[in-house]
Amino acid sequence: MGTRTDKPRKVEAASVPTSQPDVAQPEAKPAPAVPVLPIVEAASLYEALDRIEGDTLDLISENLGECTRCRLHEQRNKIVFGAGNPRAELVFVGEGPGRDEDAQGLPFVGRAGKLLTQMIEAMGLRREDVYICNVVKCRPPENRKPEDDEVATCSPYLFRQLDVLAPRAIVCLGGTAAQALLKTKDPISRFRGVWFDYRNTKLLATYHPAYLLRNPNAKRDVWNDLQKVMAHLGLQGKKPSR
After folding, report:
1. Signed CA dihedral, 63, 64, 67, 68: sign only
2. Structure pTM?
3. Among 54, 60, 92, 197, whose CB has the most other CB atoms within 10 angstroms?
4. Cβ neighbours of residue 215 under 8 Å, at least 6 residues apart?
5. DSSP class of residue 127?
6. How many CB atoms lie under 10 A from the CB of residue 63?
């Protein structure tokens, strides 16, 4: 299992003997600040288990099958399992497939996917060098955000994928991916660009490429985040074009 942040222990105040009521007590010091986003203990059944011995991407895909485990299957065209180098040192995790991905069965092939490709190339890599997948494997209707129960149903397959891939770094694209892996409801603005330990792997969250298409001024923030990943992986890269 990966490194996990222990839950802070509750410190009980020392009791004062009733036989000494007049002894002045020292003024209580303010409690130390609690980290904004501790990585909490796993809540799901899957995360309570150890890694699956002998697991492979092919086996995970076979176990997933023609999935009908949640309502997202009702309108999907194709399951989008993931694609890329099975020995990649870097994995990108998005929210879920969009219209183009649902049609082709491949992750990040629409407009946001083209921007992701540019981001990867700016890091000095090619798409074939990395692995790309999503929290949910089927397109949510009208590209809405996946519901909590849909994430809970599908994310165990993502957890298994990440365990098999065992990359040196995971980049979560957008809040949904980061919240699913870090088990938090905090908005991405609270922890974007911060390194976390996830099951013996470094994890960092940044904005989703689709967000950058709507808010191009945020590209600078994302490039700063990607530079942290590049430094961790020892990549040179090049400054992306605007």
Report:
1. positive
2. 0.80
3. 92
4. 207
5. G
6. 13
Asked whether 116 and 91 are in contact (CB, 8 A), the reply is no
CB 207 within 8 A of CB 221: yes
Going by C-beta distance under 8 Å and a sequence separation of 6 or more, which residues neighbour residue 1?
Answer: 50, 51, 199
Kindly give the confidence (pLDDT) of every residue in the chain, 242 residues in length, as a single tens digit, with 9 standing for 90 and above: 444 444 444 434 444 344 444 444 545 555 444 344 444 333 344 444 568 899 999 999 999 999 999 999 999 999 999 999 999 999 999 999 999 999 999 999 999 999 999 999 999 999 999 999 999 999 999 999 999 999 999 999 999 999 999 999 999 999 999 999 999 999 999 999 999 999 999 999 999 999 999 999 999 999 999 999 999 999 997 766 55
Residue ranges per structural domain of the chain: 57-233
b/e per residue 137-150 (b: at least 16 CB within 10 A): bbbbeeeeebeeeb
Give the CA distances from residue 211 to residues 12, 95, 155, 202, in Å, rounded to whole numbers and listed in that order. Answer: 46, 12, 22, 23
| Range 57-233 has CATH code 3.40.470.10 | yes
- What CA–CA distances, in Å, run from 56 to 1, 4, 60, 94, 190? 17, 24, 6, 21, 34
Tokens 């991916």 belong to: 177
Token pair belonging to 239: 């400054």
